[in-house]
């Protein structure tokens, strides 16, 4: 059934960040004392800690990808009937007082026969035509359904297409642990099923989505490849304390860092230098699935089913793509717009050279500089 090593827990060092304000942070010692073992029983997949070999540059990643990623413009949402609620969601939904280890959402008596748990199919303008994302939302969850739909939309489609079932759960379903206040999430690695707790920000969604991608060929995870392990062995640092956990978390945090860099004209996040983690950064950047036109191509119909993208769970885009959905990239040297580069966008709306397209060329250029 749920072999514990399939589970994976991310404890975030962020507490209810407000977009307009600096994000309040929980001191690292607080995070470490935070335990969910009674309920979730998550266990790290068995991979050794990287802490002896790689120093952490930061205690946590100090940015929010959310505002840099565009919201969905045209979302189609369908509520599933009570009978259609996935059994996987019901498995984490229990009566009040249940001592089940898997209680993540509680059917409270106040609900008067209306389930706290609802399930939804969502299609975005760039993906989900035949395989919508399915989201189970617990009525007690701090994150509203609308917010969850928005955050999932902001996960670049090249990663989002690997995400399986999504569950949005409250921080503290049994109401018995007031210290249970750190938004967090975990991914069931084999199915790409992601459980969010509390108001988990877009960084967390990207982090978990990259686990789904990493393990999309479950018998051959990318983070277990010799290429990734050699990159780790050749470097002296990583991004942050969480990345030090093991090569899987390191891969996810490096993915978040790469997405930041791609969206910010290849500027690394504040406080991070690439040189001591150059091999890891180059590895993730070299993945075909992480090429900007794959990540941000505005469609999940990427035609790469024979390659690395094999294992994507959503591959059909709606017939009409929204070409106006662009990714905000901090512009570089304006002269780079004059560079003629082969058209690489694959979003099916080739006529429109959006801001993103030329920005992709700029990234390519800047990478040459950074590589020197
Ligand atoms: C850390 O480095 C040592 C020595 O090079 C190596 O034997 C070990 O496998 C490394 N650990 C990890 C987790 O990579
Ligand atoms: C929104 O999406 C629906 C279904 O995918 C489509 O039929 C409709 O034309 C779209 N509307 C716009 C304005 O793009
Ligand atoms: C449940 O029923 C009671 C009594 O009819 C009512 O006061 C309460 O608002 C209802 N709660 C919900 C969630 O509908
Ligand atoms: C998954 O990885 C294994 C081992 O590398 C490989 O043999 C297999 O072809 C891969 N499966 C897919 C669907 O790519
Ligand atoms: C990682 O690769 C090794 C061989 O290099 C293999 O023995 C091990 O089972 C793999 N682990 C996972 C989780 O795939
Ligand atoms: C391209 O998209 C922009 C919005 O990003 C829009 O204003 C413009 O009209 C579009 N151009 C074409 C040729 O469709």
TrEMBL record:
SUPFAM superfamilies: Metalloproteases ('zincins'), catalytic domain. Keywords: Signal. Residues 1-20 form the signal peptide. This is Conidiation-specific protein 13.
């Amino acid at each position: 059934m749920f072999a514990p090593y399939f589970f994976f827990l991310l404890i975030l060092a962020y507490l209810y960040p407000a977009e307009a304000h600096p994000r309040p942070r929980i001191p690292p010692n607080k995070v470490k004392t935070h335990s969910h073992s009674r309920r979730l029983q998550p266990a790290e997949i068995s991979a050794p800690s990287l802490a002896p070999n790689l120093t952490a540059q930061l205690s946590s990643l100090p940015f929010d990808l959310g505002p840099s990623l565009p919201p969905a413009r045209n979302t189609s949402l369908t509520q599933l009937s009570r009978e259609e609620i996935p059994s996987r969601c019901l498995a984490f939904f229990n009566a009040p007082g249940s001592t089940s280890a898997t209680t993540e959402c509680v059917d409270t008596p106040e609900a008067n026969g209306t389930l706290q748990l609802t399930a939804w199919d969502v299609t975005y303008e760039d993906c989900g035509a035949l395989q919508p994302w399915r989201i189970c939302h617990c009525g007690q969850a701090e994150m509203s359904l609308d917010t969850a739909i928005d955050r999932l939309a902001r996960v670049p489609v090249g990663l989002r297409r690997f995400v399986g079932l999504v569950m949005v759960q409250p921080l503290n379903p049994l109401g018995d642990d007031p210290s249970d206040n750190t938004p967090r999430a975990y991914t069931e690695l084999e199915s790409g099923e992601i459980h969010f707790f509390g108001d988990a920000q877009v960084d967390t969604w990207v982090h978990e989505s990259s686990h789904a991608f990493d393990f999309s060929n479950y018998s051959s995870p990318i983070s277990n490849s010799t290429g990734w392990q050699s990159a780790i062995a050749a470097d002296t640092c990583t991004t942050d304390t969480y990345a030090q956990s093991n090569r899987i978390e390191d891969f996810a945090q490096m993915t978040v860092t790469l997405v930041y860099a791609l969206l910010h004209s290849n500027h690394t996040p504040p406080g991070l230098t690439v040189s001591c983690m150059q091999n890891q950064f180059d590895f993730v950047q070299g993945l075909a699935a992480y090429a900007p036109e794959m990540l941000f191509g505005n469609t999940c119909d990427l035609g790469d089913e024979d390659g690395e993208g094999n294992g994507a769970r959503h591959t059909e885009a709606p017939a009409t793509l929204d070409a106006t959905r662009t990714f905000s990239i901090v512009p570089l040297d304006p002269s780079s717009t004059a560079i003629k580069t082969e058209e690489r966008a694959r979003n099916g709306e080739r006529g429109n050279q959006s801001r993103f397209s030329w920005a992709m060329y700029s990234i390519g250029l800047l990478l040459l500089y950074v590589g020197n």
